[in-house]
Amino acid sequence: MTIVSKNSAESAADERPRRRITSLEVLCVLVLLAVLGQDWLQRILDAPAVRTGATIFVAVCVQALPFLVLGVLISGAIAAFVPARVLRKVLPRNEALAVPTAGAAGIALAGCECASVPVARRLIGQGVLPSVAFTFMLAAPAVNPVVLVATAVAFPGEPGMVLARFLGSMGTAVFMGWLWAKLGKAEWIAERVLRRMPEHPGNRRWVTFAETARHDLVEAGGYLVLGGLVSAVLTVAVPQDWLATLGGQVVLGVLVMAVLAVVLSLCSEADAFVAASLAPLPLLPKLVFMVVGPAVDLKLFALQTGTFGKAFALRFAPATFVVAIACALGAGLLVLGGVR
Amino acid sequence: MRRETQNILLVLTGGALLKIAFGDTYLRYVKPSQQPLLIIAGVVILALAAVAIVRDIKARQPKTSQPRARAAGHDHARSAWLLTLPVLAIFVVAPPALGADSVDRDSSRATAGATDSAFPPLPRGAVVDLSVTEFVTRAGWDTANSLDDRTVELTGFVVRDGESLRLARMVVTCCAADAAPLSVRLHDAPATGLRSDDWITVTGQLVPGTATEASDYQPVLRVDSLREVSAPRNPYE
């Protein structure tokens, strides 16, 4: 018995029933081994740091999966029920105008960032300009009412934070859209994203809906897990005490908070509370934390790699990181009137 | 990865979500309010897998002569293997709630958004049952000093560092990844045999003026009584 490459294994399995190891058997053996080795696994995972990391890993996955499911359902619905011509009619023809429109539309989708990645992918598949879809992808998790209310609750007595966050995140989304319109190249996006879904009449639409949602879930789910895994390992491995030593240094504080937002990969509905609780820092670095987090973090980078391809993510994520810091600083100085 | 394997993985993933949502296990990872989301997500994932499985079985029956339609062509989703990790973690290991290790790891945080103000008076009674959040917030920021000369009852887990003993509780906003610890130092506590992560209920009085910036807003409680208890349903506040 040999393990052959996936494609030939599949076609071969269809034609002649010869014994080959497929992913199905691998999965069964994996599960069996895990069950048999349960005691041993629990023993090696008993170190306190490993236990903490495992809990955080499962928490990130469990917390994000419902939002990813919401995202793939919307994605499936777009593929099945929203014909490309309707989208073309709704959005302004002018790309420079369509980008802010997409940003404003982001206010309506109250979900975490994981939901918006598959939705953006499907919008592109239905013929929406990539710049417009990316603006929507960046805006939706950051400027929806749930997130803004959470920010207001986390920063009582600082209503400026809500406005500053809104402006910073919206600015990031719109500016990235325009940047893509100017510099972005279609060949950076994986070819499968640009492929149009065939339009099916009537009954077949439900099949399209279910199959698209299932396909997107399988594709994105693994990357979500990868992001959660890296984030959990880094959370445990990097000591958080050095945050306390940053106190007065604003430039360093801004940079560290931006990196921390990327590493922690928090849900956009929770990051305001974490930012508020990082005690000794002034407001400006905390604002940077909240603007960068929903736009780019490890979980999102993994999701974008899986959805749009490596060539895309390697360019888009660093650009978003820089733009988000700049927009947060701009909004902070404008609204808060300084570092504070 | 074959389509059949993907479907089975989806069944396992949906099953894992439902398993933790229908016990108390999910409370180790997320807020109680997320239970319905977990159930809905689990059911949807199972349904998507079921639709695909049923279609595959139908397509395989000899009557249908047309070639099997793969909705999205070949799936090159090697990444889907990673889905086995949380599934196995939930079914095989079920990582415990965060505890003393997280408190040791993370000492730089204070209560979110607390500001000096006069808090409403505590309810009457000889012993007042308080959450750790309430106690720490009042101890640090209450200008009306409502805790002075009052006996309170607190429940949390033990953080032991040599002879010094703390009672702590993790505060969770959305999921355990954003958990922040709150802790109270225990004075005059009969510490015999207590280990980190044991759950205890203590009664005692606040030592006024101990929750300051210098002490990281960790108030000191002079302990009257201490008893071991079993872990509460929801380990977080």
TrEMBL record, chain A:
Q: Which PANTHER family match?
A: UPF0718 PROTEIN YCGR
| Protein name stated in the entry | Permease
Q: Where in the cell is it found?
A: Cell membrane
Membrane topology is: Multi-pass membrane protein
Q: What is its main location?
A: membrane
**Cross-referenced InterPro entries:** DUF318, UPF0718
Report keywords, A-Z: Cell membrane, Membrane, Transmembrane, Transmembrane helix
Q: What does the sequence similarity comment in the record state about its family?
A: Belongs to the UPF0718 family.
Q: Which residues cross the membrane?
A: 21-41, 53-82, 131-155, 161-181, 220-240, 246-266, 273-296, 316-339
Q: Which organism is it from?
A: Tamaricihabitans halophyticus
Any single Gene Ontology cellular-component annotation: plasma membrane
TrEMBL record, chain B:
- Superkingdom per UniProt: Bacteria
**Keyword field:** Membrane, Transmembrane, Transmembrane helix
Its transmembrane ranges are: 39-58, 79-98
Any one Pfam family here would be DUF1980_C
The record's section on InterPro entries has: DUF1980 (IPR015402), DUF1980_C (IPR048447), DUF1980_N (IPR048493), UPF0703_membrane_permease (IPR052955)
DUF1980 domain residues are: 10-98, 147-236
Q: What is this protein called?
A: Putative repeat protein (TIGR03943 family)
